[in-house]
Amino acid sequence: MQFKLYKNEIIMVLAICVLLGAFFYKQKAQNAQKDDASIVILQETKKIIALKKVWADKSSISKIKNLKNIVSSSKVKWNKKSKKLSVSFLDLSNKEFNKVMTKIMNLPIEIISLEAKEVDSKYKVEMKCKW
């Protein structure tokens, strides 16, 4: 009998409890998301600093210059301005093409564009990069 008398009040108290639980859960989830975002930003900053150290390394410049000597100079068009490079490799055999692509992918550079085409069983590679 008492339950029927306070039925609406009990329903309201339960609804408010559920509402408060949902509110606190939402606040906790938002705080966790902000913490995760700050951790990601910190990790990305560490990666950027590490990449800047690699790109500023003087030995990487010599590795990039060695790219010119992979194949004969008649097959290479080289255009280097400060820290930007445009290079074209023409009439490459399969072996030369694999050698060039492996070397390019192992260099500490930021590739702006890379295009490889096969023309009559010979390959042409054009690349623009910076470091």
> What portion of residues is helical?
55-70%
Oligomer: single chain
The number of distinct helices, counting runs of at least 4 residues, comes to: 4
In what range is the share of β-strand residues?
A: 25-35%
Largest pleated sheet = 4 strands, antiparallel
Notes on the protein architecture:
This protein is an alpha+beta fold and 131 residues long. It folds into two domains: 6-56; 58-130. The chain is built from four helices and four strands. It has helices at 2-5, 7-56, 58-66, 94-105; strands at residues 76-81, 84-92, 110-119, 122-130. The chain has a four-stranded antiparallel sheet. The chain is elongated.
Short description:
With 131 residues, the chain is α+β, with helices and mostly antiparallel strands. It is built from four helices and four strands, in the order H-H-H-E-E-H-E-E. A hairpin with a 2-residue loop joins strand 3 and strand 4 (122-130).
